[in-house]
From TrEMBL, chain A:
This is Probable cytosolic iron-sulfur protein assembly protein Ciao1. PANTHER family: CYTOSOLIC IRON-SULFUR PROTEIN ASSEMBLY PROTEIN CIAO1-RELATED, WD40 PROTEIN CIAO1. It comes from Leptosia nina. GO terms for cellular component: cytosolic [4Fe-4S] assembly targeting complex. One of its GO terms (biological process) is iron-sulfur cluster assembly. InterPro entries: CIAO1/Cia1 (IPR028608), WD40/YVTN_repeat-like_dom_sf (IPR015943), WD40_PAC1 (IPR020472), WD40_repeat_CS (IPR019775), WD40_repeat_dom_sf (IPR036322), WD40_rpt (IPR001680). SUPFAM superfamilies: WD40 repeat-like.
TrEMBL record, chain B:
Pfam families: Fe_hyd_lg_C, Fe_hyd_SSU. Component of the cytosolic iron-sulfur (Fe/S) protein assembly machinery. Required for maturation of extramitochondrial Fe/S proteins. SUPFAM superfamilies: Fe-only hydrogenase. InterPro entries: Cytosolic_Fe-S_CAF, Fe_hydrogenase, Fe_hydrogenase_lsu_C, Fe_hydrogenase_ssu. Keywords: 4Fe-4S, Iron, Iron-sulfur, Metal-binding. GO terms for molecular function: 4 iron, 4 sulfur cluster binding. This is Iron hydrogenase small subunit domain-containing protein. Residues 415-471 form the Iron hydrogenase small subunit domain. Belongs to the NARF family.
Length: 336, 481
């Protein structure tokens, strides 16, 4: 039997806690919420405690925070329409660049694996790609209008410059740069969910993608490259993504977040039914029709909607969650 | 269906998925009649009726026009219901068939003259689509419009030359103003012929960016003045009885034609009544199961003077009309005495952001750029906001690769990339005879005879326009969750 042991419960923010993000070294994490504050937490002898509070960066709710792969920069996406970039070149964390351009609420921000690119998305239905141009300069590389509704989340492939976005239009879009004219194009549309896609996560290879939706399902998508062994037809020399597994019947409400651990391969979900669930791929799973078992279900993980789950990037099975109830919880996944 | 407007417009809340009736925030003016009691309204099957007058009186339906949408900071709707009313192939066909009907019945015409002005980019697009050379495509298009009942089919060289000459002049004025008043907002001068860019600037960056945008009208609107004012007068027609249609490479031009700035109260008409695009023309032909190649040829009209100089012309520089080149060469000569400067552009971050400069005595004295596509508009605006723009002039177009790749140009056939098509269109544009605006004798004559001189108030009034910042209003109704 597997279980989630609660290591610590933190009253973290006034009001909704929207997002948490582990620092790449796994010893610090950042959180943000409705109170327009970003908290940086580190582990003291008494447990996790606030080391730094970043205030006055945004005028409205902060929806997501993201550490750069090098760990030196923190990006924050806000409903005030801006994305702030924080660093501590001066010794303490300061906002040294602001990315403007979205018409209204920015919903998500993510760094590419190289740390050279940044993506944002929001209510104006667009997905933006920014390039780090040095000296606190960020240049807009692309504005992608592939979705026709609010874009909820952006995330990058774990090793390549391939971007994925999830939207209120029920689809997921995948983008990459066309080297010839250095412009970005939508190369695939993943269409199968029956309601808003709230979040998405690549596995460690980047060849599979988990998506979660308000239709109460998690879907697993697999990339079929040109000339794949299975003979799945591929046009225009771009990969196709096929839904190879739908996890339905497990969640009773909207699923707001999905996290695919790059070490253990476990999938965690955050749901509006206040439950955190952990799925594990079965031993003899067929790569073209994989199966997953629900191995852990933490009832009343929070007293309200669970907004976000994040696996610690180091191999320690620690999981963070945050909720509308104002709390952050630190969990340890134990498989007995 | 993906929106056909440029990316810049799509971002400014252009919404294909609501109709005005659902979420429009435009206040409706109701003519109040004094009555002792409150109004009683009956809802009938065919409308709402006001009963307060004792008998049923049908209430007027509220209609939202494109001009309303443009004057509002809320959504711009591209819902068919709005566009179809004024700006479509159906409307053009309706006007033409109505006129055929009145003619056949011997009834007095509402529309005395139908004029079609065709810009070079859609001709090239259609030439490529139907595998014709530019001359054939022009003549077949002309033949097609004539057969539909259009009276005059015109090229737009005069309007384009006017636009370049006015932009050149405006740049010199702005340059001198900036020298005399370094704190003023005169430079960089930003091109104004792209309505997608102008509309985005008005709705999003308002009073900050508008002072930089050139006041020179776009060729479409200059052509509008030429047709409705000069040509109508020459033919002794009421401007409102002339129906003026343009063929354009992008949908945003429909919004431009509908602007209130281009409506004359005195003449009670728009300068351009209807805009159709290359992609709609392709559709009109396919509806009739015709190919452009099979149609009869006709020659372009030349109503301006005796010697016929009609034809499709290009300009040196970009396929968007060559503004950067035109203004640069004029400024180099007038300000620094340099004739025939080297026009070698350097790509900046991508091929859609290109820069050219003029060095004199080891010093960079002029720096111009061409910024196409929304991402480059963004970077330009951000540079300006941070006071880091090094440019004197920027040719800004909302579509990547500029007007040859306009949002309403015919899409490439399956298997062909947009890039290859644009490269082909660019080579077609380069093959056109190049117009040198300052040497266009008809234009100089029109300055004298029509506009009472180069810098007259009349030239200012007819060849320039203004822009309006729109305050954002985030009313509750306008919020979408």
């Amino acid at each position: 039997m597997a279980k989630l042991e609660l290591l610590q419960s933190i009253n973290a923010h006034k009001g909704i806690v929207w997002n948490v993000c582990w620092h790449p070294a796994g010893k610090i994490f950042a959180s943000c919420g409705e109170d327009k504050v970003i908290n940086l937490w580190s582990k003291e002898s008494q447990g996790w405690a606030v080391k730094t509070m970043l205030v006055d960066g945004h005028q409205r709710t902060i929806r997501e925070v993201a550490w750069s792969p090098c760990g030196n920069f923190l990006a924050s996406a806000s409903f005030d329409g801006t994305t702030a970039i924080w660093d501590k070149k001066s010794g303490q964390f300061e906002c040294n660049a602001t990315l403007e351009g979205h018409e209204n609420e920015v919903k998500s921000v993510a760094w590419s694996p190289s740390g050279q690119l940044l993506s944002t998305c929001g209510r104006d239905k667009s997905v933006w790609v920014w390039e780090v141009a040095g000296d606190d300069e960020y240049v807009c590389e692309a504005v992608l209008n592939a979705h026709n509704q609010d874009v909820k989340k952006v995330t990058w492939h774990p090793s390549l410059e391939i971007l994925a976005s999830a939207s209120y239009d029920n689809t997921v879009k995948i983008y990459k740069e066309d080297q010839l004219d250095s412009d970005w194009n939508c190369i695939a549309t993943l269409d199968s969910h029956e309601s808003t896609v709230w979040s998405l996560a690549f596995d460690k290879t980047g060849e599979r993608l988990a998506t979660c939706s308000a239709d109460n399902t998690v879907k697993i998508w697999k990339e079929y490259k040109p000339n794949n062994e299975l003979g799945v037809s591929v046009s225009d020399q771009e990969s196709v993504w096929k839904c190879v597994c739908t996890l339905s019947g497990y969640h009773t409400r909207c699923i707001y977040d999905v996290a695919w651990c790059h070490q253990s391969g476990l999938i965690a979900t955050a749901s509006g039914d206040d439950i955190i669930r952990i799925f594990k791929e079965t031993e003899d799973s067929d790569p073209n029709a994989p199966t997953f078992d629900l191995i852990c279900k933490k009832y009343d993980a929070h007293s309200q909607d669970v907004n976000c789950v994040k696996w610690n990037p180091t191999l320690n099975n620690e999981l963070l969650s945050c909720s509308d109830d104002g709390q952050i919880k630190v969990w340890k996944f134990v498989e007995e | 269906m993906a929106s056909r407007f440029s990316g810049a417009l799509q971002l400014t809340d252009l919404d294909d998925f609501i109709t005005p009736s659902q979420e429009c925030i435009k206040p409706v003016k109701i003519e109040k009649v004094k009555s002792k009691t409150g109004a009683k309204i009956k809802i009938g099957e065919d409308g709402y009726f006001d009963l307060s007058g004792g008998k049923e009186q049908k209430l007027q339906k509220v209609e939202i026009t494109l001009a309303d949408c443009l004057a509002c900071s809320g959504c711009i709707t591209s819902a068919e219901s709005v566009l179809v009313t004024k700006q479509s192939q159906e409307e053009l066909l309706r006007v033409l068939s109505e006129r055929k009907y009145t003619d056949s019945k011997g009834v007095k015409r509402d529309v005395n003259l139908v004029v079609m002005s065709i810009s070079p980019q859609p001709i090239l697009s259609l030439a490529a689509r139907y595998k014709l050379n530019v001359q054939e495509a022009t003549n077949k298009l002309t033949g097609y419009f004539k057969k539909l009942g259009v009276d005059l089919v015109l090229d737009m060289r005069i309007a384009e030359d006017f636009a370049i000459l006015e932009a050149q002049q405006e740049f010199l004025e702005r340059y001198h103003n900036q020298q005399n008043d370094p704190a003023g907002k005169y430079l960089p001068m930003l091109a104004s012929s792209c309505p997608g860019w102008v509309c985005y600037a008005e709705k999003t960056h308002g009073s900050f960016i508008l002072p930089y945008i050139s006041s020179t009208k776009s060729p479409q609107q200059i052509q509008g003045s030429l047709v409705k004012q000069f040509l109508a007068a020459k033919r002794e027609l009421l401007p409102s009885s002339v129906y003026h249609v343009t063929l354009m490479p992008c949908y945003d031009k429909k919004l431009e034609a509908s602007r209130e700035d281009f409506y004359s109260e005195i003449l009670s008409c728009q300068d351009v009544d209807c805009v159709i695009t290359a992609i709609e023309l392709e559709q009109m032909l396919s509806n009739e199961e015709k190919s452009l190649a099979d149609l009869e040829c006709a020659n372009l009209d030349w109503p301006w003077e005796a010697s016929d100089e009609s034809g499709v012309w290009g300009h040196a520089g970009s396929g968007s009309g060559g503004y950067s080149d035109g203004v640069f060469m004029h400024a180099a000569e007038q300000l620094f005495g340099v004739t025939n400067p080297s026009m070698e552009y350097k790509n900046l971050r991508n091929p859609d952001f290109r820069v050219v400069s003029l060095d004199k005595d080891g010093k960079e004295v002029l720096k111009f750029a061409i910024a196409n596509g929304f991402r480059n508009i963004q970077n330009l605006v951000q540079k300006l906001k941070r006071g880091k723009s090094p440019y004197h002039y920027v040719e800004v177009m909302a579509c990547p690769s500029g007007c040859l790749n306009g949002g309403a140009q015919v899409r490439p056939p399956q298997g062909e990339s947009t890039r290859d098509l644009v490269t082909h269109l660019n080579s077609l544009y380069r093959s056109l005879p190049q117009s040198e605006a300052s040497e266009n004798s008809l234009v100089s004559r029109l300055y004298t005879e029509w506009l009472s001189g180069r810098h007259s108030d009349k030239a200012r009034a007819l060849l320039h326009t203004q822009y309006h910042a729109l305050e954002k209003s985030d009313v509750a109704l306008n919020m979408k969750w």
